[in-house]
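user: can you give me the structure for this one chain? tokens are fine.
assistant: on it. calling the predictor now.
[tool input]
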Amino acid sequence: MSLLGGEEDFDGYDDFVRGNIPETGGFLRGQDVLEGDEHVEFHRTTRDIFEERKVYDMTFNYNLTRLNLDSRHPDAGYRYAEDTEDDGVLRAEFTPTTEFCPQSHTLAIGSFRAWNGLSDRHGYDEVRVRVDDHHNSDDINERMREIEERYGGEDVDAVNAAGGDVSSSDGRWAEGP
């Protein structure tokens, strides 16, 4: 088997295979977790958005959404939940393949940038992102809170084009944790 895996190692985008997606973590507890067809529908939309906006896991050289379908990593990928207290907000929780994944902060920021500003595509005013099960998730998630407070559901690519800088509110974003 190659590092990229063969097609037999992947579920289909139309399948919701409970055993091949991560359990929900703390960020999604008490929220309306998307299951079955709701999860599949949002994940398919995410696949298209991530393809357009180039959110790729460079270790495996594929669109990050494919991680949810990779049976070799059943505890990794994204889970989604509608926020029970903030209408129009979706919570997305990323579980990396390893506790020390060096791309976790980059993938979280890339996902935030890809989703936000596209409510007409996915139906949510804002998508908030957190990282679960990572040795540095507290620091990464604090940075995600900062970026959310600053930009909310804005299209961050438009903010950057207008002279803003979503990649670094204080110089730490580009450097990582």
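assistant: here you go. The helical segments are 36-53, 104-115, 119-122, 137-151, 156-161. Residues 31 and 84 are 5 Å apart (CA to CA).
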